[in-house]
Amino acid sequence: MTGRVRAWRAAHPTAVRVLRVTLTVLCAALVLGALLLPNGPNTVRPAQFLRLPAEAIVGAAVLLALPGRRWRTAVAVPTGVALGALTTLNLLDIGFKEYLGRGFNVVLDWELLDDARSYQKDTMGGAATTAATVGIVVALLLLFAALVLATLRLGELLARHRTVATKGTLVAGTVWITCSTLGLQIAGVPLAADRGADTLTTQTRRVKATLRDEAAFAKEAGQDAFGATPPAQLVPDLRGRDVLFTFIESYGRSALEDPLIAPGVTSTLDARTEALQKAGFHAKSGWLTSATYGGSSWLGHSTFLSGLWIDNQQRYRTVTASDHLTLTKVFQKTGDWRTVGIVPGVQKGWPESRFFGLDHVYDAFRLGYEGPKFSWSTMPDQYALEAFQRLEHGKEHDKPLMAEIILTSSHQPWAPIPSMVGWDELGDGRIFEGIEEAGADPKEVVPDSDRSKEEYGKSVAYSVTSLTEWLERYGGEDTVLVFLGDHQPIPRVSGDNASRDVPVSIVAKDPEVLEKIADWNWADGLRPLADTPVWKMDTFRDRFLTAYGSTPHPSGK
């Protein structure tokens, strides 16, 4: 075999030269691409790859200074691995910014990759997810191997042409310094680049900030304005009432203000406001700024309920391992409410239920649903609410209910979406089989931004309709409903510069309930206005407790 290759080379010298030059050019392009790859989805433009990277100049100088091939190999191999790691981090940054509106945290975010895989499985199916996972792993291995081989080849090329390479490196260094000093640009992008160093600096800062934040937040979580309040002094103005805290997945401000989404959502909110008023209910609505964006719903839930800013997984783990008082646990602490969790999105153990003060938890497997899944959502919101009515709200109890309800039908990819059916026809959920089969295919919706917006708006309208129809049908004089979004949808739907604001509403029949929050200056009805006050989500707990008569007694001071 070796002899045949040599014979072919001897017989085709021009082709050999062309192949060698092509391979060298590809190796250089691969290395330069790794060094110049931006870390944002909207910054990957051709001009970004026409820059002069400082790291390439420094790397060439180092390889030229090494005495022999063994030394060059010892440096080139880890350099290629480092370039592979750099590329991986930049790709992760792009993905996280596209879906969560923030960069990748190398300390905290690895476990979210498993959540992403679970979401992909629910959306695209097990076989497609397995194929995609294998493909990604293979692609990364090939990327690392190619970068190592490319670095080795370029190192040997520099050594063979040491004199020319040395002069070229000096010229490149001079050009880089000149471009950097004069601020020269091409298509609005600086010609002098140091993307590799910038990525390393950014990740180092994130790691340092994460480690510093861990200790500081643990101390913050140990302090609580209502932590030592006696049970009798907690929410006395809500005694005897059923209080329901309901999260609507991805229900963000864009649903009410984006021109492609808002018409359907706002018309639904106005229609449901009118229907509730006819049934004797009234509402006040405002805005809260969520601690998360695009996903990681549990961060929004815990921020709202704990009164602490929970914007990363480390903070979530810290607070849920503490005895900090949550809004829902307040009702458990009084001993005067039966506390319940309706969490159809939970499909595995959920030890955090103790932190949230939930004595009775109904997850995806305890709500009696036998119908089809709707992508990630295990069941339609209408069914989950009817199950709550059947299992808890419609039964006689010796105490009023406090329930945390998490509705999931508006979770991405917003395809297929359930539609409303008769409340008496829900049964065990099998009525949704035909509806799910006739719904949109996620593969057609996900790549299309306008289509995603359209379907997202429909899903929010469905969730709001389900919840308010349930209230209209089953709510009573003593029912108090607090419902809100947990975060904005992903940037592809909400927009690159969207806020983190979400709507929040309080609905009740008894006028006294809304009179308690008259000084909040919230808008009447289910639709907050553009000039309605915006609060950080972590401030709601204390405002709510104070409004309904709770007396502060700090703990942990």
Structure explained in plain terms:
The chain crosses the membrane at residues 21-37, 49-66, 73-92, 127-152. Keywords: Membrane, Transmembrane, Transmembrane helix. This is CDP-alcohol phosphatidyltransferase. It is a single chain. This protein has helices at residues 2-11, 13-36, 54-65, 69-100, 110-124, 126-160, 162-182, 195-221, 254-257, 262-278, 297-306, 313-320, 327-334, 381-393, 433-438, 442-445, 449-474, 491-494, 511-515, 540-547, and strands at 52-53, 185-186, 189-190, 192-193, 242-248, 282-289, 338-342, 360-362, 401-407, 479-485, 501-508, 523-524, 534-536. The protein is of the alpha/beta class and 557 residues long. Strands 5, 6, 7, 8, 9, 10, 11, 12 and 13 form a nine-stranded mixed beta sheet that branches. Strands 1-4 form a two-stranded parallel sheet. The protein has a two-stranded antiparallel sheet with strand order 2-3. It has two domains: 2-209, no CATH class; 243-326 and 368-499 and 510-547, Alkaline Phosphatase, subunit A. It is built from 20 helices and 13 strands. β2 (185-186) and β3 (189-190) form a beta hairpin.
| N- to C-terminal distance | 79 Å
User: Which range does the strand content fall in?
Assistant: 5-15%
What class, by secondary structure content? alpha/beta
The overall pLDDT average reads 86
In total, the number of domains comes to 2
Instruction: Supply the CATH class of the largest domain.
Output: Alpha Beta
Number of strands: 13
Count of DSSP-assigned helices = 20
Brief summary of the model shown:
With 557 residues, the protein is an alpha/beta fold. 52% of the residues lie in helices and 10% in strands.
